[in-house]
Amino acid sequence: MARTRRHDPGRRERIVDAALAVVGRAGLGGLSHRTVAAEADVPLGSTTYHFASLDELLVAALRKANEGFGRLLREHPALTDPDTGLADALARLLGEWLGGERARVELEYELYLAALRRPALRPVAAEWTESVVTALAHRTDPVSARALVAVMDGICLQVLLTDGDYDEEYARVILARVLNEAPKPPLAGSNEAPKPRLTGSSEPPVDPTDT
């Protein structure tokens, strides 16, 4: 008598979650159908049934990993408020994203950059870029939106690869330059003196003894 197959409609999604957990813990080198099956607590045949190759599994994992930033971008109140400057909104959003669970952010970028070696992932990486461009284009023009994505990617990678701290003010200034937004005025009552000019100024140095 044939054994009845257990009804498990969430198995495919559980396998994708298991793949994310494996990559997050052991990196891409630790990913295999066997390690994912063990993580998901499913038979090995289930992983190959749903995903014939590891590339197929990685495509599904990358799409799911991208959902986090995409959701934040679509739902962040600062981005939906037309009275908030776009540079301010994006600088704040990056701070919240990078200031959350760092391992999750690193996992998303590890999968994103895996497209360098795995051509099957490149369309998914391109989809993510286009989705962010589309989300930003309603606040600016498409060319500026694409430039913003490139700058945000660069800022995030610098923070992650150097294990540095995110500087929200620096990000705001750089993003404002891309958007050609007016400089943010100092807070009312601020006693902060203007910063000295950096090297490259054509003005001669001032002699403090010259009266």
Structure, described:
- This protein is mainly alpha-helical and 211 residues long.
- 62% of the residues lie in helices and 0% in strands.
- The chain has 10 helices and no strands.
- It has helices at residues 11-26, 33-40, 44-50, 54-75, 77-80, 86-98, 102-113, 122-137, 142-162, 168-179.
- The longest helix is centred in the N-terminal third of the chain and has 22 residues, at 54-75.
- It is elongated.
Structural category is mainly alpha
Principal-axis shape equals elongated
Radius of gyration: 23 Å
Largest sheet: none
Quickly count the helices. 10
Integer average pLDDT: 84
Strand content: under 5%
- The helicity comes to 55-70%
Order of helices and strands: HHHHHHHHHH
The strand count comes to 0
Question: Unreliable stretches, pLDDT < 50, 5 or more residues?
Answer: 186-211
Distance between the termini: 105 Å
Describe the structure concisely.
The chain is mainly α and 211 residues long.
